[in-house]
Amino acid sequence: MDAELPKAQVSRPARGWEDAVALTGFILVAVGQASNQVLARGLAGSVPPFSLAFFRWSIIAIGLAPFAIAAIRDGKIPLAQNLWPIFAAGFLGMFRAAARSTSPASRPRRSTSR
After folding, report:
1. Which residue of 11, 38, 75, 76 pairs with 71 in a disulfide if CB–CB is 3.0 to 4.6 A?
2. HEC profile for the chain?
3. Radius of gyration of the chain from Cα atoms?
């Protein structure tokens, strides 16, 4: 005797502008990475790497600031408890990455053998 069980209702989140925002975000990330590579190649030798990284991250910070500030004000991000570890990780990570990319040891070596 097989009695039919009621089917569970699956609720999906509203799909409207959220999908458009997500797709736009993916496209902007891809365009940003591609244009960053082109810009870095074109400016190699004329703009110091530290300046290029500074302006790149400044533009990103300005673009994300409204979203981050709103999340912090709403209490979604416990920033006060983690302020110093966040600053330390950002400071050390940026300088370590920039120093590694500009140090003579990170440059490709030319082979002396023919």
Report:
1. 76
2. CCCCCCCCCCCCCCCCHHHHHHHHHHHHHHHHHHHHHHHHHHHCCCCCHHHHHHHHHHHHHHHHHHHHHHHHHCCCCCCHHHHHHHHHHHHHHHHHHHHHHHCHHHCCCCCCCC
3. 23
Domain range annotation of the chain: 16-99
Q: Which residue has the tokens 């110091």?
A: 48
Could you give phi then psi for residue 49, rounded to 5 degrees?
-60, -35
pLDDT tens by residue, the chain, 114 residues? 556 666 656 555 556 777 888 888 889 888 888 887 888 888 888 888 778 878 888 888 898 889 888 888 888 777 778 888 888 888 887 776 665 555 555 555 555 655
- Is the pTM higher than 0.70? The answer reads no
- Angle, vertex CA 27, rays to CA 49 and CA 87, nearest 5: 45
CA distances from 55 to 1, 8, 48, 106 (A): 71, 52, 11, 22
